[in-house]
Write a structure and sequence with these properties.
This is DUF4111 domain-containing protein. The protein is an alpha+beta fold. It has ten helices and six strands.
């Protein structure tokens, strides 16, 4: 575990110990993706995005053991939080089960809760990171039969995501402006960080056919986006880094600026003939 931050190493060592204690002879491998694999872990902000491979499908009968593992871990290490899924080795590259019966449900842990069902994070972004940036904690190398998504698949998925999830997020933001502007500053900070850096990650992928961290996306935005948006981008990066009290504008102005920025980037990616990176 030499390639992970010390706090992450401590969490993972305890996780593996607990797992082998309460689900013995079950663990086959553990792999990290997300900010840790991108070398962009931020204390008190980043999660531990994991994929744990087991030698049998974990079911609701394993709920007690899994809950005990994660709750014990959370009590010992409130941060960083674990966020991931339990799969079989043949599941690498899956885009989700049909859920026709319980044997197709995945056990996954998200936002402090254990769930069983279709895992929401099986998508080309996750599998691209696993293929190109994964960190193997225990277990064998990822199967050679796993090719990962192509750059074209990644591009098309992110473009669709921008025009569905992000466009929907923008509409929701606009429709609830009168409510959102009265949120506590901490909640508005979180919205600005998530929205500005999140959509810049989409922008980066559509331009470069690759994946970047949130802070990396902010730096990329400062290079590629007009200067009029730089103060907002820097604000989002400062929030991500844990800096406070940088922007003295009212929360209403900050929310409106974020809405305008989301509009700008979505339009930029759809109507200004962004060069398809696959066709360069």
């Amino acid at each position: 575990m030499t390639n992970v931050p010390r706090i992450v190493q401590s969490v993972l060592e305890e996780y593996i110990r607990l797992f082998n204690t309460y689900l013995p002879e079950t663990l086959e491998g553990m792999y990290l993706h997300g900010s840790i694999a991108l070398g962009a872990f931020v204390n008190d902000s980043s999660d531990i995005d994991f994929i744990t491979v087991t030698n049998r499908r974990l079911t609701t009968e394993d709920s007690e053991a899994l809950n005990h593992i994660h709750l014990t871990l959370q009590q010992t290490f409130p941060k960083p939080e674990m966020d991931g899924v339990y799969i079989l080795k043949e599941d690498f590259g899956n885009r989700g089960p049909t859920c026709e019966d319980d044997t197709e449900l995945y056990a996954y842990y998200n936002n402090g809760e254990l769930n069983f069902g279709e895992y929401f994070n099986f998508n080309p972004v996750t599998w691209y990171l696993v293929k190109h940036n994964e960190l193997r904690i225990v277990g064998p190398e990822i199967p050679s039969t796993f090719s990962g998504p192509s750059s074209e698949e990644l591009y098309q998925y992110v473009l669709h995501n921008m025009n569905t999830y992000w466009a929907g997020r923008l509409r929701s933001f606009e429709e609830s402006l009168d409510e959102v502007k009265h949120y506590p500053t901490s909640m508005i900070d979180a919205e600005i960080e998530w929205s500005v850096l999140g959509i810049l990650r989409q922008f980066y992928t559509l331009k470069e056919a690759s994946i970047i961290s949130k802070q990396g996306a902010g730096q990329y935005g400062l290079q590629e986006i007009p200067e009029e948006w730089h103060s907002l981008i820097r604000e989002a990066m400062n929030i991500r880094s844990g800096l406070e009290g940088i922007n003295t504008d009212s929360n209403e102005i900050r929310v409106k600026q974020t809405i305008m920025f989301l509009k700008y980037v979505i339009v930029l990616c759809n109507e200004q003939n962004m060069e398809h990176p696959i066709q360069r």
